[in-house]
Amino acid sequence: METVDLLINGGIVMRLRSLLLLLSLISPVPAATAMQQAFLIQNSGWMEPFYSDPQSLFKSLILAVFHTVTRPQDRVFVSVFNQSVGNNKSPVLIYQNGQARSVDEVIGDIKVAKKPQSSALTDTDFQEAVTKTIIDRFQGKPGIIWIFTNNKNSPNNDAATIVRNREFYQLIHNEPTIARTVAFPLGMPVKGRVYKASGLMVYALAYGNEADAALRYLIDSGRVGQVFTETPARLKPLDRDSVRLLPQEIRNQPGTTVGLAADRHTVVLDVEASKQQPSVEILASLENLFYPYIIESADLSASFVVAASRSTLAPEPSRIAALEPGARKEIRVTLPIPLAQVPSIWSIKALRSFGTRFEIHGTLELELSNQRLVLSDAFSKNLNTLFPGDPISEVFSPPQDTLSSQVSVPFVIRIVYPTYPILLIGLALLVGLGVILSALILGNRSRVYQLRVDGQVQTCRLKPFRSQPLYSARGELVARVRRGLARIEVLDRKEGHSVEINQ
Questions:
Q1: Disulfide engineering: 480 pairs with which of 317, 334, 345, 491, CB 3.0-4.6 Å?
Q2: For residues 452, 453, 459 and 464, what is the CA-based torsion angle, rounded to 10 degrees?
Q3: Nearest to residue 62, comparing CAs of 20, 16, 96, 93?
Q4: What is the pTM for the complete model shown?
Q5: What is the C-alpha separation between 258 and 203, in angstroms, rounded?
Q6: Does residue 189 have a cis bond before it (omega within 30 degrees)?
Q7: CA dihedral over 208, 212, 214, 218, signed as positive or negative
Q8: What's the CA gap between 163 and 394, in Å, rounded?
Q9: Among 79, 109, 108, CA closest to 91
Q10: Cα 96 off chain centre by
């Protein structure tokens, strides 16, 4: 199988292999439902060097992305796009599920498009390609759109390319139905007969919330990282998931521990119930997830929500400044323990939790207000190298109304109960059982009692709760005696007879 080298972000080498080897290494993405995915491949005149340069890895990149992110149950559409003029329509569907020809053959045949009845190469209209894909292919339902472009948007080949690019950037940022947009700037030097280029851009747009969740899974699970070695640059959203909380230690309660659950997102706090501490001071790191943005400044506030109860917290420090993408800042936050929800160590709930843990679920809500984001200098410099003369950095300029962001961190407080209550209860049960058994064994034995019946001494042998008649020397029925556990009593004594118990 053939292997090729691909320059990612202007310098990192990634290995791409052919379809069969790629499929043998990559398992399908697990998901409950199928997802629509569209692949828009620009074939206008500006893309000429990516098709004509024999060293171009453009088509290899498209195939690698296609086979990495799609699953057999997905509805997939592959289209080329430029600009609709006269008989030339854009975008044009060239592949979808169930087609006889393979996607490899179809993509291998893509060529630069020409205008109708002309030798001139076509122009480009990004907005047209995106909106028609959503309307015609997705039928307005959720889906992920992948765009492979050199980032030159020039409808009608006018001089306002910069203006057209800005319109596309505004669509990415401001269209509310596009829930998430990420971008991958790639270094791919190519030289054609007409143009040359230093790089290209791959965009991924999630149309709808279901597509947002699917795209996040592709990124967070590492699927996308099998093709793109760099962190995806986030264009949208910029009002949530801004930071990640990485707990380190508990400061004021020895024996209490804090860490992350298996999902690497939920914070788990193990608390000893016997201490009944009202709060714990957590030392944690706050990591900037806003790649490629620097959080230049933001006010930090927090609250802790358990059931219907909300507690306002005071994190220290309360302000973030100059936090580079991927960098971390140490913070402290005092978290209240909801003692009212913690069962007593002698309660039934606690005893049932013996050998496990009683859990309280809550949410730590962080808010970054008065948020100011700026593009990383290193990232901006790389963009200018890959796309000289293009206002590409404007696509990464956050809208001015993005002044705050929220982060919800799931919290699980696990109450660790001591073993001595169950041991004491077990010991008490054993002692009580022993006493009862002893009483039963001892009490079930017969006991001899002496009585004086009409002046004459008699003896009787009785077991607990048994009775026996008493007779005089002449054989007359005098009375009955009955035994409890130890003592006996005289019952039904006949008139004219006497019965005395010798104690």
A1: 491
A2: -100
A3: 16
A4: 0.73
A5: 38
A6: no
A7: positive
A8: 11
A9: 79
A10: 32
d(CA 324, CA 366): 19
Amino acid at 158: D
- The secondary structure of 2-69 as a DSSP string is -EEEEEETTTEEEEEE-HHHHHHH-PPPP-SS--EEEEEEE-SGGGHHHHH-TT--HHHHHHHHHHHH
Report which residue type is found at 321: A
* Amino acid present at 37: Q
Residue 426 burial (10 A CB sphere; 0-12, 13-18, 19+): exposed
> What Cα–Cα distance (Å) separates residue 131 from each residue in 17, 48, 138, 247?
33, 24, 10, 43
Tell me the three state secondary structure of residue 437. Answer: helix
502's tokens? 């010798």
Q: What is the DSSP letter of 99?
A: -
Angle made by CA atoms 144, 2, 185, in degrees to the nearest 5: 40
Q: 183-217, pLDDT tens digit by residue? A: 999 999 999 988 889 999 999 999 999 999 999 99
Pairing status of strand 477-483 against strand 467-471: antiparallel
Handedness of CA 57, 184, 39, 390 (dihedral sign): negative
CA distance 97 to 39: 13
User: At residue 146, what are phi and psi to the nearest 5 degrees?
Assistant: -105, 130
Q: Residue 187: which of 36, 9, 332 has the closest Cα?
A: 9
pLDDT in tens, 312-367: 999 999 999 999 999 999 999 988 877 665 666 556 665 665 555 677 888 999 99
Residue carrying the six token digits 């990192």: 12
How many residues are recorded in the chain? 503
What's the half-sphere exposure (Cβ side, CA atoms, 13 Å) at 190? Answer: 28
- Annotate 107-146 with three-state secondary structure: HHCCCCCECCCCCCECCCCHHHHHHHHHHHHCCCCCEEEE
Question: Can you give the C-alpha Rg of the chain in angstroms?
Answer: 40
